[in-house]
Design brief:
Layout: H1 9-22, H2 28-36, H3 42-51, H4 59-66, H5 71-77, H6 81-84, H7 87-106, H8 108-111, H9 114-127, H10 136-142, H11 150-175, H12 180-188, H13 196-203, H14 207-219, H15 231-247, H16 249-255, H17 257-276
Helix pairs in contact: 1-11, 1-17, 2-3, 2-7, 4-5, 9-11, 9-16, 9-17, 10-11, 11-15, 12-14
Amino acid sequence: MTTSLPPRAGRRCHNVVNTVHSTLYFSPDLDREMGALGITDPAAARLAARSAALGAVGAGTVAATFYNYNHELLARHLPAVWETASPAAVLDARLRAVDATLRRLLGEETVASPEMAEAAELALRAAEACTRHARPLYSANADLPVPDSPHLAYWHAATLLREHRGDGHLTALLSLGLDPVEAVVSHTATGKAMSPRWFLSSRGWRRGDWDAAAGRLRERGLLDAEGELTEAGTRLREELEEITDRLDTAPYEHLGAAGVERLSGLARDFAVSAAGAGAFPADLISKG
């Protein structure tokens, strides 16, 4: 496939845009808003917040679309959470939490800045080229209205770009034969992913599941005895990202090289500010 973009430009743009999007799932503002609806379990709150665009779905749908969550964990909260609050109420609460989170992390001046409005316009323009087929989480969120406030519109567009890439990433994982836990174990071995402790506690798996997945990857020659990626494992992870890039080319081609560069720069500034304000736990990313 020919492209007018520099190598991996779309991936780099996605990564910085997604950083600010992801702050919601570590935010006390989300806990507060969901608690006000009666959803007080943190796991239930996060599952509901991300899946609400799909409607009052059960554990099976979320297992399929989220990929790396244990169905047993999901079944403890879904579909029961929808008896406490409707998807529409959760979506409203989610947006209120986004508003509070971005104002707290970025500051009122940044939220109201011309740069935020520009970033929202660029991200929404990129999302115009996202496609719905075989993209359930993207497509569900694409049915939601674009918020009026620029910082909320930016977060909405970031959601569309995140879920569009994520839906394609699942196709790549399946094509390369990585199951939910193997996918995360191999990603963690790159040093760029959620630590085992955070993965196990948030996704509902046990240490035995992690160790078994690592064993399967060793049998395939993808991990060595120390849990590091082998040359074959490194190649597989690179192929995985390249397939994902290929499936996610359209939004960034649509935006164009100059637009991608500008959006990446704006998003990087927001991401640095959010991280500096304590958006993420210090031990979130680690190996081992």
